[in-house]
What does this fold into?
Amino acid sequence: MGAKNFTASELLEMSPKEFRSIARQGQAIHTSRVCRGYAQANLAIVPRDVAFEFLVFCNRNPRACPVIDVTEPGNPHPPRVAPEADLRTDLGKYRVYKDGKLVDEPSDIRDYWRDDLVGFLLGCSYSFDWLMRAANVKFRFIGAFPTNIPCVPAGPFSGHVVVSCRFFKDSEEAVRAIQISSRVPAVHGAPIHIGDPLLIGIKDLYSYRTDFLTEPPAPQEPDEIALYWGCGLTAQVVAVESKLPLMITHYPGTMFVTDKRVEELAIL
Amino acid sequence: MGAKNFTASELLEMSPKEFRSIARQGQAIHTSRVCRGYAQANLAIVPRDVAFEFLVFCNRNPRACPVIDVTEPGNPHPPRVAPEADLRTDLGKYRVYKDGKLVDEPSDIRDYWRDDLVGFLLGCSYSFDWLMRAANVKFRFIGAFPTNIPCVPAGPFSGHVVVSCRFFKDSEEAVRAIQISSRVPAVHGAPIHIGDPLLIGIKDLYSYRTDFLTEPPAPQEPDEIALYWGCGLTAQVVAVESKLPLMITHYPGTMFVTDKRVEELAIL
It folds into this structure.
């Protein structure tokens, strides 16, 4: 099927089912502004023989890797958050890591699928951005960055936390952002750092990082407050740092869009 | 070592480490009023070959089975919440389920321990009772009851949710109890039912239930509001209903006392 262009407004009002059908046709659309109000997820697929250890890893690192769904081995349908979806095709773009190396960035993973693969969906902070916009909390999304914060290891899984960074102009709105995100631990919950990026090993917030798909941001202004949340890209850093034989993930920024409204995942 | 009696006040002010050393000596003390402010946990031990499916089960049923720690296979020390403790000895009393039948209630499980066993600690609502008392929210603990609410199954694990029931005299305090418990999803989070026990399949709140250790409570008064929380005894019902080859648990009411203050587990 041919590609089609959609207006920003069409993407914003689109249903998750319709958006996934577009991704299935091979269009890799950045998801930060699609399907307003719906929760989005990071994808991490590992073989069954390390699936227990990976789930323990996620359990030990819930701010970076909050699990919102787990598939049956070999079954590509996420039973809790989008049972009709197919994780092999319904994301715009994927990444395949072998022995800790990025070896492919395909638009579907049907050729890689095996009967022993287990899919994990990890909440994405784009989800709570809808709650912030609904509360008129204004922010600039700066990007996702590797840090020097160690993960708690489990089995073969170890590495360092990736964070997403947002700038807030207004102290009251920054506090509100902390409150709002605290309500949804399923999509990372509260921030894990405030302020100086150097304190968590980020040397430069403003260099263009192709690996995490962020545009070079305008420099921080003196009155801007930086908040940092755990990011599901941590799983990809772990795949590299742990030299895992195989992990398949989403391509940064092209998340899986679930059928759940982010408010359905909020705990209060 | 000989048994020793402790006053209510001594038990209340005791450290988790000291309390566990008493349990290690074989004393089965009900834990609802010990080690003020510390989080307590249900224990569920299963063999490694079903550990992944059990963790997925817990992930799919977080209100009943919120996981706060997972041990390495064969290692009895819970790394996150009490690394010095030994799950084989540090609870007052245990239960051993084989093929869905309760076969033993020993005071330690050293004779049952194997290199392939994995221990799971699931948050217990006794933990948030400390937060309620600190907030001067008054309640009567009525007991734990099996319901007709089905769990979301995973692998061989299926069954029905067990709830704990508390009565509140004051609407404002009942609302406060919902707010307080919502802050700690690690120990069940918010209630899953309000009001009529029959609606969730509980025929009688007032009959004495030896299996879940509750005393026969005084009947509900007209102004009392009943709130029901998910309960970690769900794992024991699942062991029975699923006829699991082996699950080892705590004995109801004699929980594992962790080194974490419940406030450390709160998400906001």
